[in-house]
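Quick review question:
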């Protein structure tokens, strides 16, 4: 997958070159432009159950395969303002991707889901992750800028769970409170994810969860709207 990324890190846009006889798999709704000889096939890529599992991981039930007989270009963009990053996976290590962060990949990459375990139940993050396996390139999308970090063997790093984009499957992780209940309720620090290397971790500099909370706090409630109308 040959990709050219521009307009980052705030409003990144990627143009993916599709060679003659080739194809690329894209998240439903992520296509912004097409040039040249491009055709689209929409499917669940694995049947109903696989599409359902993928949707539980925050991706769409359907995916779009863009193919070309003579060559073309597909332009893609993330749903939120932010950056894009391309990385490679192989048979040795799969990649676990947070909800909404998988944007596109080679058709040779299998996009499924993985149960994050009961440790994700109360976190609002990590309950179900997308599992990308196989051989090929993957395009990751973030809210804000995206950073790639390499953890050495035994090295640990803690991220607010809303800032996690993706990590190698061999990286150990656990979800916990940032501190005590006082810090969680009064200090604004909630659930964090602790990673232990070796392996790669990608983070985003903004949290979509924080954005939703910020917007919710500034939106008029139904009760206030009712009071205004009654007056």
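Suggested answer, residue by residue:
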């Amino acid at each position: 997958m040959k990709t050219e990324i521009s307009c980052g890190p705030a409003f990144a846009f990627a143009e993916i070159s599709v060679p003659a006889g080739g194809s690329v798999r894209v998240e439903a709704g992520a296509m912004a432009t097409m040039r040249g000889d491009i055709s689209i096939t929409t499917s669940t890529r694995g049947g109903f159950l696989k599409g359902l599992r993928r949707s539980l991981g925050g991706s769409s039930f359907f995916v779009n395969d863009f193919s070309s007989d003579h060559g073309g270009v597909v332009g893609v963009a993330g749903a939120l303002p932010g950056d894009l990053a391309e990385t490679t996976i192989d048979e040795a290590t799969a990649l676990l991707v947070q909800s909404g962060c998988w944007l596109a990949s080679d058709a040779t990459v299998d996009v499924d889901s993985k149960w994050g375990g009961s440790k994700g139940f109360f976190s609002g993050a990590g309950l179900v992750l997308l599992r990308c396996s196989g051989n090929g390139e993957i395009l990751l999308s973030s809210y804000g800028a995206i950073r790639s970090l390499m953890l050495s063997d035994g090295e640990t790093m803690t991220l607010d769970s809303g800032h996690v984009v993706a990590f190698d499957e061999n990286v150990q992780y656990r979800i916990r409170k940032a501190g005590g209940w006082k810090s969680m309720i009064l200090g604004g620090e909630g659930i964090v994810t602790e990673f232990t290397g070796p392996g790669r971790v990608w983070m985003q500099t903004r949290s979509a969860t924080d954005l939703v909370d910020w917007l919710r706090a500034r939106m008029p409630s139904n009760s206030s709207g009712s009071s205004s109308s009654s007056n």
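Why it works: Helices lie at 48-56, 181-186, 208-218, 222-230. The CA atoms of residues 8 and 199 lie 25 Å apart.
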